[in-house]
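On clarity, I found the account of how folds are encoded harder to follow than it need be. Since the whole study asks how a given chain folds, the encoding of that fold should be made plain. For illustration, here is how one protein appears when written out as sequence plus structure tokens:

:::
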Amino acid sequence: MEYIKHHIPVSGMFFSLYDPDLNVGRMLSAIWPSNIAKPSKTMVIPKAYWGWLKKRWMNKNQIQIINDINNEGEPKRSLFSMLWPENTSHLSMELWLEKTRLGLFHLFVEGKNRYDQSHADLLSLLHEPFAIAISNILQHQEILRLKDMLADDNNYLRNQMMEITGDTVIGAEFGLRGVMEMVQQVALLNSPVLLLGETGVGKEVIANAIHYSSKRKNNSFIRVNCGAIPENLIDSELFGHEKGAFTGAISSKRGRFERANNGTIFLDEVGELPPAAQVRLLRVLQQHEIERVGGTETIPVNVRIISATHQNLEAMVKSGTFREDLFYRLNVFPITIPPLRHRVDDIPALISHFLEHKSRELGIDNLPIISKETMEEIQSYYWPGNVRELENFVERTLIQGGIENKIDPLPFNKTVAPENYIGTPSLRPATGRMLSMDEAVTAHILKALSQTGGRIEGGKGAARLLKINPSTLRGRMRKLGIPCGKNGLATRIMNFNKRHS
């Protein structure tokens, strides 16, 4: 514009596009004088002007001079008055390249009767280079759009492959039955879901089950580990950024929420979000819109939010590290996923699942054999890392000895569970705290087993002492995480007796 000023009077200029199918005008680039209000980059054209604009769009009148808008007819006069003051002159050039209408290059200046044919002739010299420049801009934007679509499609296909290869929920009929019932209740709705549970219990698997049981299953399922993204990049990753928003932002970028539009976004470890990102997330939940970093326009998004955490968000709210209003927005439908030690009946099925998949990955043809005693020892372990630890154990075992087609007994019977492990509760609870029903029943069973030397069946067994069927006692022990194997049970009883001696 500084160069053009030497030859043509100008106060402002812009490149624009008009989409006749959507009846939307869009500015690609603009310079606007400070004393004239600048319109938004995207403008929805009123219905009254649709026919006139479409007809004008197809006419190849390259350059037009408007020195006094009052001399123009309708609807041009009304449309111009929406953008500029009455006391302005205009010089517009329509850009065509190979019989394709690309857009409009428009100059305007304050004051009437400022342009003449000599200015139009000078502007016409710029038609070809400007048309090529606009064509390059549009092609570049299309490449970026297709690149983003390809990334989304790849993500969708990966999810589809996970379904085909059997990304099932192990324990859906046993230890996770209650969880899966809640999944079915909420899946078809758009309500936010908060998944709670220890690290490694399989929160992502449950989020996956919710998405693929919902009406959004054919759209994107975007996963975000909030704790793995640096704090200075979290806003850009989630909400995107505009070109030049910060050093290194050489182009605009869509964030995860835009990529998840009409689908589901899974925010794992949501408690790790910094305060600024919490405010932006709250806006998404309340107004269903985002704003890119460095941008001024709001972008509507239709996203189903599933969040997960192993932290105590209520305690974080009290300490001021997590927003109270955001907590209540996320906590619409909480689902607590039990730890593996509370669903020991699922362990054999989980091991079978992991053995099959890991053996295929490692190229091991014959699945290892697990003895009954080894399985009981595995079930007797309290698994602090939950399902993830069990999966890693299976892979490690296969690497170390899978070629021998067996899994050796584990040294879990030498492992002493932590104090808060439900398998070895104290009969003397902390001051002011009652034992839960599970803790009390566990302690009662362990006391009976201690008196019978670990024997369950027979005339001198714990089942007779407790007056229940031996199989019922074993089922109750598994549910409470009490091992049935001799070695694991002996260690548990010894630990129990030490604590109550």
Summary: Residues 411-433 have pLDDT under 50 and may be disordered. The chain is about 40% helix and 15% strand.
